[in-house]
Amino acid sequence: MNLDDYRIADEPFYRPVADEIALFEAAYGDRLPVMLKGPTGCGKTRFVEHMAWRLGRPLITVACHEDMTASDLAGRFLLSPEGTVWHDGPLTTAVRHGAICYLDEIVEARQDTTVVIHPLTDARRVLPLDKHNEVIQAHSDFALTISYNPGYQSAVKDLKESTKQRFVAIEFSYPERDVEAAIVAREAGVESGLADVLVAIGARSRNLRGQGLDEGASTRMLIHAGRLVRAGMPIETATRSAIVLPITDDADMREALSGAVAACIA
Ligand SMILES: Nc1ncnc2c1ncn2[C@@H]1O[C@H](COP(=O)(O)OP(=O)(O)O)[C@@H](O)[C@H]1O
Ligand SMILES: [Mg+2]
């Protein structure tokens, strides 16, 4: 098995916000499982791509969802002309050959799926494949990273306590204004004056959290708005399409947000 397809050749741009790079390196050095915790669109996925590149490890990413089963992660027998053949799932591939496995939005998966990672996250570092009659000892380069958005938490959708307690957590939140503006300018390819305006809009929207907005505008949304401007749209249209409309269906909240946007643009 060749993991070349999972190697990241070019450095993914990542602007550090705190000590997250050192923390991840320390955790990886000891192969401690890591949980990236924070709201959507604040750089978790970009960070893990950057870290895989920095550490020179292949990265296998799995977007978790409700219908995902343990077999989707671990593997299954499939019919082929030669009979039934075992196929490793993405988690097994990472464990066997030594990649970083990133389970994105882990709470989306059912708890009976998530428990397959337990034996990998304690001192044993093994993956039992019951159906294949095999217990794999994890490759020395293997490490597990998950992402988790505490905002989506509900009684039905949360990590088991016994799962949570296996990870060291790195907290992500929206960066400070000047750092976020530098990210928006670079990622959207816009000049810094416009990036400053977009970041100010982001800050205002985040102040509306809890007053009818579940989450404020993410860094990702600000970048989208910047890209629309770069593509020739007026800033009013760009911010409406990239921020105001996607974030809420509530007419009053849209009006409040539009007011905040107008104040920032003026
Ligand atoms: N610290 C950062 N450095 C570089 N880019 C960032 C950073 N934070 C956010 N971004 C930008 O925001 C976008 C969304 O981030 P992403 O990692 O996909 O968010 P998450 O996985 O937390 O939902 C990225 O594609 C990237 O353009
Ligand atoms: Mg992500």
Task: Report on the architecture of this protein.
The protein has 266 residues and is α/β, with parallel strands linked by helices. It contains eleven helices and nine strands. The chain folds into two domains: 168 residues, P-loop containing nucleotide triphosphate hydrolases (Rossmann fold); 89 residues. The strands form three sheets. It has a five-stranded parallel β-sheet with strand order 2-5-8-1-9, with helices on both faces. A two-stranded antiparallel sheet has the order 3-4. The protein has a two-stranded antiparallel ribbon with strand order 6-7. The longest helix is centred in the C-terminal third of the chain and has 16 residues. The protein is elongated. The protein binds adenosine-5'-diphosphate and magnesium ion. The site of magnesium ion has 4 residues, from helix 2.
Q: Mind telling me the CATH class of the largest domain?
A: Alpha Beta
Number of domains: 2
Note poorly predicted spans. none
Rg from C-alpha positions? 21 Å
- Molecular shape: elongated
What structural category characterises the helix and strand content? alpha/beta
Order of helices and strands: HEHEHEEHEHEEEHEHHHHH
Mean pLDDT: 94
Helix content: 40-55%
Largest sheet: 5 strands, parallel
First-residue to last-residue Cα separation: 57 Å
User: How large a portion of the residues is in β-strands, by DSSP E?
Assistant: 15-25%
Total helical elements:
11
Number of strands: 9
